[in-house]
Amino acid sequence: MPVSLNRRQTLLGLGAIGAASAFAAPALARAQRNLAVLHLGSHAPSFIAWERGYFKDAGIDLNLQFFEAAQPMAVAIASGDADFGVTAMTGGLISLAQKDAVKVIGGALIERPGSPGSVILASNKAYDDGLTDPSKLEGRSFGITTAGSSFHFMAHKIAQATGQDLAKIDLRPLQKLGSLVGALSTGQIDAWAIQPSIAAKLLADGTVKQIGTIAEMAPNYQVTTAFTSTKNASGEPELVKAFVAAYSRAISDYNAAFIDRTADQAEIDALAAIVHKYVETDSQADVAKANLIAGAQRINEGLAMAVDSIVEQLEWYKSEGMVDPSVTRDQLIDTSFVKTV
C-alpha cells in the first residue's frame, strides 16, 4: 500500500505521447497539479508542453514549480507538493521509492554516442596545468551538487571508464548549479560535467576547455527520468497516462527541431523563444537560441525508459552505501506507462 508522507517524514527519508483521450479530460481537471522543473535546457519539453497547452489538452490543470536541484524535487513529489518531475536519479529519490512514496515512470535525457550529450569541462587554470583529458582526474577536484547526485554518478562512470580510483578524485559538493558554474569559471574547481547547453555558454565565454564527453564514458546512460508519486502511479493511472501523452508531444517537437532537424525554421524559432522564457533569460535571444541548438541533447521519444541503465544506477547507489541495500527495482520503477529500451 502507498504510504502518505508528510514533509518532515520525507526529509527524514532522504537522510538514510498524442493527446490524452477526450473522455479522460473532465475527470483529470478536478485538481491543480504541479510539475517540478529546473531552469535548464534539458527541461525544454516541460516548457513547450506548458506554453503550447498540451497539458490542458490532456485534461491536466498543471503549473510549473521551479527548483534548484534534483533531490528537492523528489521530496516535493513524495510530500504532495508536486505531482511530476523529470530529472536525474538521486540517492534521495531511491530512498523515497523504497518507502513507497515515488515511482520512476519514464526516461528522458539519454547519452548516446553520435548524439549531443553532456560535456566534461576543465577550468582554464587546470587545463593549462595538464588536465587535458578525463583520464587525468586523480588528484583533481570535480564539481557535484551533492553526494548521490547525477554528477556524482558521472564522476564514477568517468573513473570506471578510464581506470581511475574515484576515491582519489576530490569531489566538491557545491549544492547549486550556479555555484558550480562560478567555481569552474574562476578555477576554484578543476573539472565538471554538464549538459551541453550550459557547456556551450561556458565555452563561448572562454572560461573553460572541453576535455571529453559523458557519452564516451557512459554510452546509453539514462541521465534523467520522469517520476511521480506512488499514489498517482497506483491510484490515478489515467492521470499518469495523460501526463506521459502530453509530455511526449513536447518531446517530439523538441527532437524534431533541435536533434533530428526535421522541423522548419519557423518552428525552430518558435520553440527557441519558448525555452528562452525560462533558460538563459539573462542572455540575448539570439545567443540563447544558438546555445540551445548547440547544446541540444536527445530525449527518449514517448519517455521510453532505459531500464538497464536505471538498474545500474540503483546498484551503484547500493554499493556505495548511499541507499538501503535491500531496495529493489520494482520498488523504484513502474514500466506500465511507457516502452522500455
Automatic annotation (TrEMBL):
GO cellular component: periplasmic space
The organism's place on the tree of life at top rank: Bacteria
Family: Belongs to the bacterial solute-binding protein SsuA/TauA family.
Location within or outside the cell: Periplasm
Cleavable signal peptide: 1-24
Name of protein: ABC transporter substrate-binding protein
Any one GO biological process: alkanesulfonate transmembrane transport
Keywords for the protein's UniProt record, in alphabetical order: Signal
Lineage of the species this protein comes from: Bacteria, Pseudomonadati, Pseudomonadota, Alphaproteobacteria, Rhodobacterales
PROSITE patterns from the UniProt entry: TAT (PS51318)
SsuA/THI5-like domain segment(s): 42-253
